[in-house]
Amino acid sequence: MAVSRGADVSLAGRESRRRAIFRFDPRLKLMTTVDEQDGVPVISVKGAPEEVMKRVTRIMGPTGERPATDADRGRVTEVMASYGRQGLRVLAFARRVLAARGADPSDTWPAGRRSGPCRGPLRRRAGRRFHRE
Fold this sequence. Notes:
Blueprint: H1 11-17, E1 18-25, E2 30-37, E3 40-47, H2 49-55, E4 58-61, E5 64-67, H3 70-85, E6 92-97, H4 120-130
Antiparallel strand pairs: 1-2, 2-3, 3-6, 4-5
């Protein structure tokens, strides 16, 4: 699917854009990468759906991106439980596009919010690694 949309999915292409990787942490039940896309850092997270959903502030719906609600989290939990009863393993994915250096942070962060797929020390560490000169 990504290839059909023109994405470079080769290992060399992916590694050339990778700025940081935080391997799977069994305590967090997540792994995180920081990649450069069009000159802007993007944090991507994958892991246990319940852990990813705790951290998201926005969700992609049929009409586009919108704020995530408790009802969304409940629906995801119900679907994941259904898959689990069928013996299926499920991962959730999330991403956060960070502000480009020198940009107004309100361009990418909802007003007054400082949460997302990566919070606290992980986000600060990822930002420092990306902006290393």
